[in-house]
Each structure stands twice: as C-alpha cells, then as structure tokens.
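Data deposition worksheet. Section B asks for the primary sequence of the deposited chain exactly as it was used as input, without tags or linkers unless they were present during the calculation. Section C holds the resulting structure in token form. Section D is free text for depositor observations; keep each observation to a single sentence. Incomplete worksheets are returned to the depositor.
Section A, Depositor: J.P.
Section B:
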Amino acid sequence: MKRNIAINKFVWLLTAIVTIGLSTSQAQTITHVDFDLPSLEYDVIYLADFIDVTSNKLAKNIPNFSGTIRPDVPGQIMLDVTALVQLKGHSSPEELVFAETEPFNIGAVRTITASDLAAGSVSDIKIKGDPYRENQGLRDRIKDYAKQFPTAPVGQYILQLEAYSVTPTGGKGTILGRIQKVVTVRNASPDEVQVNLIDPQAGAVVSTTLPTFNWTSPNPVVTLYVYEKLPIYQSLEEAVNGIPFLKQEVNGPQSFTYPANASRRLEQNKSYVWFVEASVTTNRQTIQRRSEIRLFRIRLDNRAGQDVSDMMGSFGSSAAGTFSTLQSIGWTLTGTITLDGKPVTLDDLKALVAKLMAQNIQVTVRVE
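Section C:
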C-alpha cells in the first residue's frame, strides 16, 4: 500500500513538472528573429551551382550557402522567401520566385541551408502549396539565356527572408524579422573583364618620382604593380618576375599616385614597368585579369632627351621609330656625344643636323 502511494506521488509529481514545463513553453512568445546569411559577393555566378537544371528550382546543395536564424525565445515561426531579379537595362526588380513555409519549430538557433528552401526538400521546413509561385516570363528569359551561357546575366539578384509569428489557428501572424541580400553580377563572364592602362603611356618619360597611374576597369577592386626594369632584363615580362617596388590594392578610384612614404622609392634616370590586375570573384574561384605591361622612365630634367627625340624625328619615320623602340626597352640617354672621335655639345650636334637637312643630305641612323 505504501509502495502504491509512493508511485502515485511520483506520477503526480512528474505530471506536475511536465504541466509546468508545457505552461512555461506556451507562455513564451517569439517577438523578434535575427538572421545571418552569407555575403554572396560575386562578380560572376555559374547558374548550375544555384539552379537545379532538371527542375529549374533552387539547387539543394549550393556551395558556401549556410545561414542562421536566432529567435529571442524558442517557439514556432513561418518564413516568406522571395527571390527578385533586376536585369541590366531594367529600371526596377521583378519577383522571380515567392514561397511561404508551413509553421516549424525553432530552438535557440537554427542553421538554414539551400536544402531547407528547395522544392521537394526532406527538411522539416515545408513549402506551403509546393511548388513555388513563379514569374513565368522572367523565368523563361533567364532559362533561354542559360541555354547559351553557363553564367547568370548581368544584374542584381535579391534574396529576401521574412519571419512571421504563428497564430493559434496555424496562420501567419506578425512579422518578427527580415533580411535582404543583394548579389550584384557585374560580368557575364570573367573573360569580358578588360583592364586598360591610360597613363603613363608606353615608353613615357616622367618628370617626377611620384607619378600618377590611371587605368579603366569594370571591377572596382584592382591591384597596382610597379617593378624596376633592370638592364639585365630582356623583356618587360621578365622584369615583372622580380620583387615589386609597389604592390597596392585600390578599391574604387581608377587612379593612384605613387606614395611619398613608400618603402621603395622611384629614382631619377631609372626605368620601371607597371600593370594593373583586377580580381573577378565567382562562386567557384577568384580569377585575376591583368592589363598589358608598360614601361616608363624617370627623368626630372629631360631637355637633352627631348632634343634628341626631336632631332631623330627630323630625320624621318625610320629614325624616329628606332629611337622610340630604344626608349620602349628602357634605353636612356647618358654619356658624351662624339663626332669623329671628338666630343661635341648637343647644341653643336643640333646645328650640324640642321645644316645637313637644309642641304637635303640624306642621313641614315643605325643602332650598334
């Protein structure tokens, strides 16, 4: 008898604990939800990694796509999932896909993946009225594009998640939280990213040790490289295999002035090469797109070089071309000018050349 009384008291105590636990759980109501989703910052997106081509739905396994939902207290919520697209040339976003989930339980934190949002998912998050509501016209446009190209068309792709409370009848209640992620696809392909150099021009003589570099790039983030062109290097490509004088990331402005406090400074009467490299981020890898390589020289007082250049130009295109070629490979004007083994000044040489030209005497220039 005593044993039965003890068992009954234990059952009563257990029932009370469960009842209190249920009452406490029911009393807790979610009032706020925080989202954390990956940044998804890509210049180029490969469609096959995001869209299941067999069903034209969101892929169940998207690389690097995983986020979290954090309610202020455990409970039940519903989600609205909206995907919008604003293709290049269109003034406003268009809804591509909308889906509403059934109510589901959430604890202190819930990890959410593409599989949870994909149609036909085995997750506990179920899509209400599966399949999704779709913009058929927009979907067909993207589908036709995907038949020709492996990457997404240029534009903005917007993913929006909204969490709602659940009413006693299982319907949608008040909004608890919202997040929107925008992916800006700048390029239809990494190959279309072209970086073009503006200044200094190829073979330019720069009259400052702090030159300003200018370029054009469709992508805002680039890296500027400057190398010294030593006489032992036979080509510009060989020069950029060494240690750079300057390696500078630039984000936004397509111009950069060599810093006065740089650890390695440019010097008078030396030759340098430079190029700019843009980073193209895709959902698979980051690809580097490099500009051409250009040479320039530092010459603070370039009167003699300019005089020789003008003099060569007076001899005709052949001589001017030869002098330009010498400059482009890093040749600089140094030493003493001699005529028949005797030193002459630059003014004497210019006077002699002017006399020859006035007498229509043909002059041949060669490099030895």
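Section D:
The first strand starts at residue 33 and ends at 36.
The CA atoms of residues 134 and 289 lie 37 Å apart.
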